[in-house]
Write a structure and sequence with these properties.
mainly alpha; 6 helices; 0% strand
């Protein structure tokens, strides 16, 4: 029998890890931060996987994307996925004119793709800091802030370790 709770926990952990790695890769590329060899190998491996997901399909039709855009999309899609998986998104003010009772899966997939590719998904973490986002369920706000804090702490820890690691 499949334990859906353990699958959800695993997906959450993997999402936090991938979001952290994407942000580290983005920061490293934009600010040209040097990395210790093992960190560089790790980030290079991540970039190859992200390229297969976003860059390779585009390159098949002759379009080449910079790694910063691929990192941007990765983080945006993680945020969009978290949003789409949220309970009762069909009652959100942004979707009050959409009839979710007709094929809710199709609407959620459309929202996921639009939010992911356009970068709207990146506004999801900002909305958790707004006091008006959740008026009834503060537990959701606490969980969202904890996840954001975990990612930011992991990014800061990575760059501190990278800065003080002995160069080889």
């Amino acid at each position: 029998m499949v334990n859906f709770e353990s699958i959800k926990k695993t997906l959450k952990i993997l999402s936090l890890i991938v979001a952290t790695i994407s942000a580290i890769s983005f920061i490293q590329k934009v600010f040209d931060v040097g990395l210790i060899p093992i960190a560089n190998d790790f980030i290079s491996y991540y970039r190859k996987i992200a390229y297969i997901i976003f860059g390779l399909p585009a390159e098949l039709i002759g379009i080449s994307f910079p790694i910063q855009l691929i990192d941007f999309w990765t983080i945006s899609f993680i945020c969009a996925g978290a949003y789409v998986r949220s309970k009762n998104i069909e009652t959100a003010r942004a979707f009050e004119n959409i009839n979710f009772s007709k094929s809710p899966i199709k609407w959620k997939i459309a929202i996921f793709l639009v939010f992911g590719f356009t970068g709207i998904g990146l506004f999801i973490p900002q909305s958790i800091l707004s006091i008006d986002t959740y008026t009834e369920n503060y537990a959701i706000t606490r969980k969202a802030i904890k996840n954001l804090f975990k990612i930011l702490t992991a990014i800061a820890t990575f760059f501190v370790i990278n800065a003080f690691a002995p160069s080889m």
